[in-house]
From TrEMBL:
Keywords of this entry: ATP-binding, Nucleotide-binding, Transport
A GO term, aspect molecular function: ATP binding
Family listed: Belongs to the ABC transporter superfamily.
Protein name: Energy-coupling factor ABC transporter ATP-binding protein
Keyword Translocase (UniProt): no
Xref: InterPro entries: AAA+_ATPase, ABC_transporter-like_ATP-bd, ABC_transpr_CbiO/EcfA_su, ECF_ABC_transporter_ATP-bd, P-loop_NTPase
């Protein structure tokens, strides 16, 4: 049984600006969506969960792992995909990109490359192994980042605006891949339609949880608030 995510009294500031004051949450559902306007703290939350940012106070644990202090264990526990895959891809060649995380987990280079090849084969992309990453399309680079994360077999995967800059066919393909994942998912999005079928929705505003519950409870309130804001801006 999953221990889930425990956020205990977290305080976080970025560039001297407060993001969270005393945030506490317990997350255990398989599919969790996070909505809110720009600057609400959505991306900061995702980075906290992945252990990429350390809070000034409080603690974040995922499946019992302190993801900031125990980075080796975090590799087995959490994975993250950023909005722009170019901010995530490090190596010029596809198989090197996938093998890198496995080497970070302690696998010898030859074994890491063999595992990376197996991942490519499972996704029907064996022919990508020696391709240069920059020759892939935006959607293909995003799939590459997902395969690199899946190679490490984390229990949770966090997505930060994965549908941004994608056309509709690619958006639908990415959405289907996320739906098929065995891992627990936390997904940040501006588009409430993308998380309408999720188990739980968090609505953030200015670092506070405005609403937390089922999609049919939270999303209509969120849409109504955004529509009212749009009317005010149009005046």
């Amino acid at each position: 049984m999953t221990k889930g995510i425990e956020i205990n009294n977290v305080a976080l500031a970025r560039e001297g600006q407060p993001v969270f004051a005393a945030l506490s949450l317990r997350l255990a559902e398989r599919r969790i969506g996070v909505v809110g306007r720009n600057g609400a703290g959505k991306s900061s939350l995702i980075r906290l969960l992945a252990g990429l940012m350390a809070p000034q106070a409080g603690q974040v644990r995922v499946e019992g792992v302190d993801v900031v202090r125990d980075r080796r264990a975090a590799l087995h526990t959490v994975g993250i995909l950023f909005q722009n895959p170019d901010h995530q891809i490090i190596f010029p060649v596809v198989i090197e990109e996938i093998a890198f995380g496995l080497e970070q987990m302690g696998l010898p280079r030859a074994e890491a490359r063999a595992r990376a090849q197996q991942v490519l084969e499972r996704h029907g992309r064996a022919d990508w192994a020696e391709r240069l990453c920059h020759t892939l399309s935006q959607g293909q680079r995003q799939l590459l980042c997902l395969m690199a994360v899946l190679a490490m077999q984390p229990r949770w995967i966090f997505f930060d605006e994965p549908f941004a800059s994608l056309d509709l066919p690619t958006t639908l393909a990415v959405e289907a891949r996320i739906a098929a994942l065995d891992q627990n998912v936390v997904l940040v999005t501006h588009d409430p339609a993308r998380v309408a079928g999720f188990d739980r929705i968090l609505w953030l505003e200015a670092g506070e949880v405005v609403a937390d519950g089922a999609p049919d409870e939270v999303l209509p309130r969120y849409r109504a608030a955004m529509e009212a804001l749009a009317k005010d801006l149009a005046c």
